[in-house]
């Protein structure tokens, strides 16, 4: 039971990162590699602020804002300096590695005896789960509402058909930058919560998290096939929780922890290629019939 | 309404494949005019529209819309004055958004209340009546994704988006060329209906000479970066299109 709850809690915290990547990869159609850097940035900023005595909730917000700055830099690289999307993100991510060490003063910071949001509410399994669920639910509802506003719909349309949006008189650059800021805000909030939940922040905590988040997104999409927006968001959260259970399972079946990244990459690759595999299968079935 | 003065455009300037598209082009179009544009492949018809819309900028010369000099105004700002429909039905709409969400994009030109809901009761009713005028049954499919529509239906939605808020100028670049004959006729009659009803100043590029002379009230032909023919009103009916057609082949 305890394991069940803590696995769910972890899934919820990582779901915020996955929701952030859903914005860039799925809504904006922008392969944003900043995410790994801004997740760590969220962890470092939050850790430093908490050690400095700041309220843990406020420090999560501050971490999120730092993340959105990182997103803005990537957006600037891409829209104003015309650097490829993927490269823009990588540049920011690499730069953030040094910046994160500067912020923390060293490669990692412990929060063990410090006040975290989880200790604030009692630090039990259930309360930790509720913290994750509450933050996730609030962010999910805000996202759903935002992407129905005129601004939100223009961001979605920019990702869907940029040329049309320009012909419609929309400044697509600013839409992209804004979407990157929102996405990286979420990544950093996720990083701040991860740091508080595990009790330390580490300069390498972001490594490999994009694949984890993408795996969550595609697992969710495979499980929940509704096209309405709120269901797509819920699918991401469900996917993130499922991912944690899958990991828990394979670890218990004896997989070595160092193989997890390989495993995750393979799962994500298979799920991402499902549409193509389906096409090939239906085509060969048709051919066989003829 | 639209005034173009001494417009020059050269592609690949100072390179081996330098291409002079326009040299001192002058053109004035009156309010409410419906001008059809003809000319051989590569004559510069699309380039002209791109410059009017601000997708590309002229090397020199001036463009005025409603006596306002828009020559250096960026595309996204100018788009508030201009409605555009391209040849490719996929270009004008966002496939993963619903019909009503697409139409709501066209309403962005109207105000800047960014955090208001894109779809509310009021504009949803407005979209319904506008879609009903298209006579395609789309008024019952507001929540359908545009990607599910046929090319003709998508082009009809694009045309509606381009005119939902009355533009100063409507630019149509072979907007029926990619459609089957039935959809083509439908979109052409819709074009006529909408531009007549709202009295919209329109430029329409077409390769169909019959359409060119039967639609609108003026026809211009582009050739070697110049207006080689400019016919207004009655004179368009008396010209023998086959003469032009031969002429075009020799371009
Ligand atoms: N962005 C560009 N860069 C370089 N050359 C271009 C560019 N756009 C157009 N051209 C060239 O300019 C010439 C005019 O092109 P344009 O598309 O305006 O012709 P068009 O009259 O619309 O022809 P069509 O009937 O085939 O659509 C062509 O030779 C084309 O290759
Ligand atoms: Mg053309």
Structural class of chain A, by secondary structure, is mainly alpha
Order of helices and strands of chain B: EEEHEEHEHHHEHEHEEHH
Estimate the mean pLDDT confidence of chain B: 90
Strand content of chain B: 15-25%
In words, what does this structure look like?
The complex is a heterodimer of chains A (290) and B (251). Chain A has 290 residues and is mostly helical. Chain A has one domain. Chain A has helices at 2-27, 34-51, 56-80, 85-104, 117-120, 125-146, 150-160, 162-167, 172-198, 209-223, 229-252, 260-272, 274-289, and strands at residues 108-110, 200-202. Chain A has a two-stranded antiparallel sheet. The model of chain A has no long low-confidence stretch (mean pLDDT 95). The model of chain B has no long low-confidence stretch (mean pLDDT 90). Bound molecules: adenosine-5'-triphosphate and magnesium ion. Adenosine-5'-triphosphate is lined by residues 11, 19, 21, 39, 41-47 of chain B.
Q: Top keywords for this entry?
A:
heterodimer; A: 290 residues; mainly alpha; two-stranded antiparallel sheet; 13 helices; 2 strands; globular; B: 251 residues; alpha/beta; Rossmann fold; six-stranded mixed sheet; four-stranded antiparallel sheet; 9 helices; 10 strands; binds adenosine-5'-triphosphate; binds magnesium ion
Indicate the topology.
The complex is a heterodimer of chains A (about 290) and B (about 250).
Chain A (H helix, E strand, L loop, with lengths): L1 H26 L6 H18 L4 H25 L4 H20 L3 E3 L6 H4 L4 H22 L3 H11 L1 H6 L4 H27 L1 E3 L6 H15 L5 H24 L7 H13 L1 H16 L1
Antiparallel strand pairs in A: 1-2
Chain B lengths: L1 E10 L7 E11 L4 E5 L6 H9 L6 E6 L2 E2 L5 H4 L3 E4 L13 H8 L14 H14 L16 H13 L5 E5 L7 H18 L3 E4 L3 H6 L3 E6 L2 E7 L2 H4 L2 H9 L2
The structure holds adenosine-5'-triphosphate and magnesium ion.
């Amino acid at each position: 039971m305890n394991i069940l709850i803590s696995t769910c809690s972890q899934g919820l915290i990582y779901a915020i990162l996955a929701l952030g990547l859903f914005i860039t990869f799925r809504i904006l159609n922008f392969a944003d590699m900043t995410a790994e850097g801004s997740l760590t940035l969220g962890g470092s900023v939050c850790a430093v602020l908490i050690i400095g005595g700041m309220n843990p909730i406020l420090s999560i917000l501050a971490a999120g804002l730092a993340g959105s700055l990182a997103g803005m830099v990537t957006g600037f690289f891409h829209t104003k300096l015309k650097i490829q999307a993927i490269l823009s993100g990588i540049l920011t991510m690499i730069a953030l590695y040094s910046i994160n060490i500067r912020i923390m003063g060293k490669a990692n910071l412990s929060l063990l005896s410090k006040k975290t949001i989880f200790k604030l509410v009692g630090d039990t399994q259930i309360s930790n789960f509720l913290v994750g669920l509450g933050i996730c639910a609030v962010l999910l509802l805000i996202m759903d509402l935002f992407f129905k506003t005129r601004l939100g719909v223009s961001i979605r349309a920019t990702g869907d058909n940029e040329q049309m949006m320009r012909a419609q008189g929309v400044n697509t650059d600013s839409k992209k930058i804004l979407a990157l800021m929102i996405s990286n805000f979420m990544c950093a909030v996720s990083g701040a919560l991860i740091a508080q939940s595990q009790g330390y922040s580490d300069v390498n905590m972001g490594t490999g998290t994009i694949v984890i988040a993408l795996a969550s997104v595609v697992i969710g999409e495979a499980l929940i096939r509704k096209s309405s927006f709120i269901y797509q968001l819920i699918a991401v959260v469900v996917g993130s929780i499922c991912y944690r259970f899958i990991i828990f399972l394979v670890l218990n079946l004896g997989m070595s922890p160092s193989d997890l990244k390989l495993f995750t990459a393979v799962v994500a690759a298979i799920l991402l290629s499902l549409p193509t595999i389906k096409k090939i299968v239906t085509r060969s079935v048709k051919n066989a019939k003829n | 309404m639209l005034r173009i003065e001494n417009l020059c455009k050269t592609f690949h300037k100072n390179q081996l494949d330098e291409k002079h598209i326009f040299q001192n082009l002058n053109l004035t179009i009156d309010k409410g005019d419906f001008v059809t544009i003809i000319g051989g492949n590569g004559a510069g018809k699309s380039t002209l529209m791109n410059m009017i819309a601000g997708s590309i900028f002229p090397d020199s010369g001036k463009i005025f819309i409603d006596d306002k000099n828009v020559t250096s105004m960026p595309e996204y700002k100018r788009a508030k004055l201009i409605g555009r429909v391209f040849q490719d039905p996929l270009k004008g709409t966002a496939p993963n958004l619903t019909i009503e969400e697409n139409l709501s994009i066209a309403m962005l030109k109207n105000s800047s209340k960014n955090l208001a809901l894109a779809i509310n009761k009021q504009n949803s009713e407005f979209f319904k009546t506008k879609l009903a005028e298209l006579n395609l049954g789309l008024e019952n499919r507001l929540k359908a994704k545009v990607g599910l529509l046929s090319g003709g239906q998508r082009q009809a939605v694009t045309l509606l988006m381009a005119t939902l808020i009355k533009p100063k100028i409507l630019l149509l670049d072979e907007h029926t060329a990619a459609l089957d004959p039935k959809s083509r006729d439908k979109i052409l009659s819709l074009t006529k209906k909408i531009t007549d009803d709202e009295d919209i100043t329109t430029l329409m590029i077409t390769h169909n000479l019959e359409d060119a002379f039967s639609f609108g009230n003026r026809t211009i032909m582009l050739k070697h970066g110049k207006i080689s023919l400019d016919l207004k009103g009655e004179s368009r009916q008396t010209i023998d299109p086959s003469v032009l057609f031969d002429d075009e082949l020799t371009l």
